[in-house]
Design goal:
The chain is mainly α and 280 residues long. Helices cover 75% and strands 0% of the residues. The chain has one domain. The model has no long low-confidence stretch (mean pLDDT 94).
Length: 280
């Protein structure tokens, strides 16, 4: 069984060089500045994760390079989009650090980072509506929007149940833990709806295997095939919150960065599916 998702495309050498230099420069500067990373930064980066997923969705509809001009499209294919998103976020973060240092407002960098990301996300959501109402693409927001709402409910219920048993862990991860659970709940719910209701194909081998197995169970006639993937996502997300809670307390910056990565793994694909199902 293949382990990598289908549809991965390595961009041409000029794009690889540009992305590589961007990653190298921004990473070295971030290491030099050593900005503090807290649990609040996990939440501040949520809009940026969603923007990355939406940006890749725009690349996929109706077919690559999608809504982008030919010359810039390769930056938003997979896996290049992850590197592109990292470089952009890192650059904005560095700029905010410089401005914060000059103005004595370093303690508000995380807030500004989240606010800018939210503003860009709103623009991207507006672009989804604009494209959907224009010619050439359909606009079917009902199921993706329902998936988002259901994810909020699932997150609230799941996190409440976890907090009853692992109160200390939940307290140590705080709102960052909620972000992790929500990201994977959203990915699980929208994948489930896409697979069972909209008839979408799954590009990633592991989720596809899980849902195919669920489809072979007697429950498939009543519950469909996607429910098991949602359960697995929730179990993994809550396990991460509980397992790494102490690490987050002892090593706040590294622990928070770990939660950022784990959140992005869920929210990026969820936002990508949101675009595909809305404009598909």
């Amino acid at each position: 069984m293949a382990l990598l998702p289908s549809g991965l495309v390595v961009p041409d050498l000029p794009y690889l060089v540009a992305l590589g230099l961007g990653v190298l420069l921004t990473t070295l500067l971030l290491l030099a500045f050593e900005p503090p990373v807290t649990r609040q930064h996990v939440v501040a980066l949520l809009p940026w994760m969603a923007v990355g997923g939406i940006a890749h969705g725009f690349y996929q509809v109706p077919s690559p390079p999608g809504l982008y001009p030919e010359w810039i499209g390769p930056l938003f294919g997979a896996p290049a989009v992850y590197v592109t998103a990292y470089v952009v976020v890192a650059a904005v973060w560095l700029l905010l650090i410089v401005v914060g240092t000059a103005t004595g407002s370093l303690d508000r960098v995380g807030t500004y980072l989240g606010a800018i990301g939210l503003g860009i996300l709103i623009v991207f959501l507006g672009a989804i509506v604009w494209q959907g109402l224009g010619p050439g693409l359909s606009f079917t927001p009902m199921w993706p929007t329902l998936a988002f709402v259901v994810s909020l409910v699932v997150t609230a219920v799941t996190y409440s149940l976890v907090s009853l048993r692992y109160t200390g862990a939940v307290a140590r991860t705080g709102i960052a833990g909620v972000a992790v659970v929500f990201a994977h709940a959203f990915d699980g719910v929208i994948t489930m709806i896409g697979y069972d209701v909209l008839g979408a194909d799954e590009r990633t081998p592991i989720p596809e295997t899980i849902m195919e197995f669920a489809g072979s169970l007697p429950t498939a006639e009543y519950l469909g095939s996607g429910w098991l993937f949602l359960v697995v996502k929730l179990l993994v997300a809550t396990l991460v919150v509980v397992t790494f809670a102490e690490y987050v307390r002892e090593r706040p910056s590294r622990g928070s960065l770990l939660l950022v990565v784990l959140t992005a793994v869920g929210l990026g694909p969820a936002a990508n599916n949101f675009v595909l199902f809305t404009l598909g």
